[in-house]
Structures are given as C-alpha cells and as structure tokens.
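Standup notes
- DV: blocked on the single-chain target, sequence here:
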Amino acid sequence: MIYKHNFSPHNIPIWNCRYILHNRKSLFLQNWLDKDIWSVMHLIDRTGNILKFEDFYSKFNINDKKQYKKVVNAIPQAIITIASNLDTNIADLKLPSLLIDNKNLLDSKINNITIRLIFNEKLHPLSFCRNSILNSFSKENAAQLRGNFYKFPIPPKVKEIHFKIVNGIYPSADFLFKRFGFESTNCSFCKEHIETTNHIFYECIYTCAFWEDLHHWLSKHMQIPDLRIENIIFGFIIDNSVNNLTINSIVILGKFFVHKNRFLKTKPNFVAFHKELCLFFSSLKHMKKKNAVKLLTLVKELNIMELS
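- DV (later): unblocked, structure below
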C-alpha cells in the first residue's frame, strides 16, 4: 500500500518500489541506504548497464555478493532501460519522501493511530456503518443482538451470514461496488432496484412476500411482533427468553434461506423454506445443548412444524 506511491521515472527508487520485487515483496537494505544507494541510477555505469559486482564493491565498499544479486536480479529490464536513457546527474538526485495521503510516514508527528486511519481510508474508502444498529436499539439491546445469536442452536454458516448482515458487511452488489469497485447490478430477485443489503433481505417485493407468509404462518402458533426492517436486519428483543430464542432463530434461518436463493438464482418461497425448517427442527433432537432442548420443546408444544 505504501510502495505503490514510491516510484518516479525521474529517480527510480529501489526501496519500497512496487516494480522491484524479490519473491513478490519489495526490497529494503539499510546498509545500502547508509551508503546513499537508493536509486537504480546509482547502479548504472557510464555505458547504461548495471554495475558489475567488482565495480559495485569498488564504488560503495559493500562486499556482499548475495545482496547484490538479490537487488540486481529484482530490477526489471524495462526499468534498467529507463534508467540508462535518463540524462540525469546523480548528484542532483534527491531521495523522495515516503508519502501516503500527502503525509510523510517518516515524520515523527505521524503516529500509529494516524497511519492506521490513513490505511483504513485508502483500503476501505467506504466505511461500513457498523454502529447503525444504534439508530434503532439502545446500546444494551444492541450488545444483546450482536452477541446472543452465537448461543443459538443454528449452523455456523447461518451465523456467519447473520453476522455480516448485522455488521453491514454482507456482500451485496451495492456493497461490492462501493467497497471494491465491482460492477454494480440490480437485485437478483426483482431485477429492478439496486441490490443493497436492505433491499435483498427486506425491501424486494419477493422477499417482502416471503416475510409476510412467514409472519402469517408463525402468528398462528405464537404471538410474534411485526417484521420490521430493523428486526429482520438486526433481530428481536423479546422479554420471554424462549420466544426470543425461537423467533430470532427462525428469522435468522429465513435470512440464510434468502441468501441461499440469491446465489441459486431462485426467488424465496415460504413453502420450500418451511420444509427446510422442519428438517432443522428434527435435527435438534440430536443436540444436547440447553438452547437446542428449549427450542425443540417449544416447537413440539406449539406444533410449529405444521404448515397451516
């Protein structure tokens, strides 16, 4: 990230240069820099060729052939050609500052915090809004929503997708476009609107219909709040711990079902989801964890596995 800025065709620095690599890594040798060797121009003889080792040793008094070969072999022929054609007096060469975001990284005023902020801005110009959950929930409730799902008896891959959605890093087309410059595409389901995370999991007409069917089915078996966007994205806070476990688990599994349909290029269908949900409920009997036992008990009591 730093060395990509450290190249100029007028002085051709050797160190931290993205074009001069050994084993795909940029180079830096302090003992060479101490001898004021930092440019390819310092290694070019009067005929425009790289100095032979004997001439290099005679000029700089560095008797390390291994280092010499490492550096010389790393310099591409194209750069040697550029250097040999430059009409530049070596005495006029000036070591360029190591800049990123117009700040000198060797400046004592630039501390690690500043450097980290610069890197974050350069690498991730779109900072995801991880704290957007606080727009809808208190800090205490947000902490519960961010942590409680780890204890739910649901598969790790399901938890991973939920984690990405909650923290604003789900790879929707809009996210990939803003973060990495990928080509932006419309929603995988409706093909009409920009594919944001909120759109995929809540706003799309096909996803919305899926949640309406789920709410209609589940409300016949237990009391369930309205499925608002903040609840679909982040989760529910329900006083009854068993109901909280049940509703959040089902909604998280529903989001994973939507995610899976996105990659299968099929529209989410509640009947198909219910079949998968029943298979999941059936698997709970093989789990001994407390939350798995709680969830299975409530499922049996409320006949949740019934479609109607």
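- Follow-up: The radius of gyration is 30 Å.
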